[in-house]
Known about the structure:
This protein has 448 residues and is of the alpha+beta class. It has 2 domains: 34-173, no CATH class; 193-419, Neuraminidase, CATH 2.120.10. It has 10 helices and 20 strands. The strands form 5 sheets. It has a 4-stranded antiparallel beta sheet with strand order 1-20-19-18, with no helix packed on it. A 4-stranded antiparallel beta sheet has the order 2-3-4-5, with no helix packed on it. Strand 10 and strand 11 (303-310) form a beta hairpin. Helix 2 crosses helix 3 (70-76), helix 2 (25-66) runs antiparallel to helix 5 and helix 3 (70-76) runs antiparallel to helix 4. The radius of gyration is 38 Å and the shape is elongated.
Amino acid sequence: MRNRRSQQEAPAPVRSEPVEPALRLRHLLLPLAFGLGLWGIYPRAKAAWVLHDAATALADYARCMAGPTGPGAVRESSDGFRKLLRRRLLSAQPTDRPFAACGSLAQELVPGPTTERAHAAEAAQFAEYNDVALAAGDDKEGFTLAAVGIGASVLDPLSAAAWPFERNGYRHLIESSSTAKEASHPQELPLPAAGAGFPRKGSLYRPTWFAGGRWLAASGSQSTMSVVESSDFGVTWGATSLNQPAIGDYAGRCAQFGSSNSFTVERTESGFAVQSWSTEQVLSRAQLAAGLEVTRTACDSSVLLLVVSAKQKALPGVLACEHGRACTPLNLDVAWLAADFDVAQIEGVSVVLTTGNGVTRVRSSRDRGASWTPGIVAYDAEQAGAPVSSAPTQLVVMGRRLMLYGQAAPRQAYPVLYSDDFGASFHGLETASAAPRRAGGTPIARRP
Length: 448
C-alpha cells in the first residue's frame, strides 16, 4: 500500500528544452552586409549626383565661351569647340579679354591659378591670335586655347565613379541652364573662291579697267607688258593680247578706272620722281629723296601710295603723294612693315593688309594715316582648311570693289575675297553674281 502511494506521490520527470541565445551571428552579418552595401553604393550615388551638376556647369561654361552652339560643340567634339573659340578670339581686338566673363565657371570645373589667369588674359596673349601688329618683346604671360578650352573629358572621372547609376555616359547630360551667360555666336569667316591667273605681286603698277563686258589688268613695264582679262568679276583671269580698248589710258601708270587723273613714277639721275597727270598733261613733278627705291604703287584719283625701300633701312616705308603735290610719309605701325604687307588706295581710303601665320588682317584710314581702324580678320588658313602659305597677300582695286588675292604658282588656285565697303568686311564671291560697281566720273580720253 505504502509502495503504491509512494509511486503515486513521486514527481514526474522534467523534460529540458534547449535555450536559444539572445544574439545570433546572422543578426550581426545582415546589418553588416547592409552597411557595407551602403558604404560602397553611396559614393557612386553621390558621384552620379555631382556628375549631373558638373555636366550642367560645363554646358553653361561652353555657352558663355562660344555662344548658343557652345554646349553642342562640347558634346560632339573638343575640336569643334576649339574652332568656335578660335573664331571668337580672332574677332577680338588685341587688348580685349574675350573669355574673362567665364572665369568663375571655369574655376568650378578646373580650379587653379592657371585657369584663372588664362581666362582673364588679353586676346594678344594667345599664340593663336597671330597678329603681326603686336609689339615685339611683350613680357606678358602667354597662353594657348588649350588653357581655356575645357572639354567634355573633364567629366570622365565622375562618369567612371557614377556607375551603375549612370550607365549611358554623360554627353546627354550636357545641357545648359536657363540662366546661363551667353556670348554672341562667333561669326564664321567667308569661304573664299578659288581664283587663278592674276599676276603675282611684284609689278610696279597694277591698273584694272572695265571694257567690252570684262575686266582687264595690266602689269609690267612697256617692254615686258602683259594683260590678263576676267569675265567672272575678278575670280579667274586669262592672258589676252595687248590690243585692248583703253590700254593706253591705264597700262604703264597708276590710274583709277573712270578717272582723268593718273600718276607715273620715273627714274632720274638722283633717284625717282612722281608725275601727276590730268588726261594728257603733266600737272606737277615731285622728286623723291635720294636713296629710295620704289617697289610698288597704289592709287585712286587723288592720292598715290608708294612702297619704298632704302639701303640704309631694314624695313620699307610708304609715302602718300597727293595729286599735284609733294609726297609725305604715311603714318603706319612699324610692325606692319615688318610683315608680309600690301597697300591699296580706293575712294579716298588708304587700306593696309598684313599677313602672318596664315591669318590676314585688313586696316583702313580715311585721314592719311592719322588714325586706323582696328584690324579685321579677312582670312584664316586654319578655318579654310588650307596651308599657311595660302593666306592672301595682295590687294587689287576693281572700280569700287577691293579684291583680295592669295599667291600661288602658275596654274595653281589661290583664295579670292572681295570687299564693297573699302575693306571693312570681306565676302567669298560665291554671291558675286553682279559685276563690281564702276567708279563715278567721266571716262578719260584715249591716248594715241
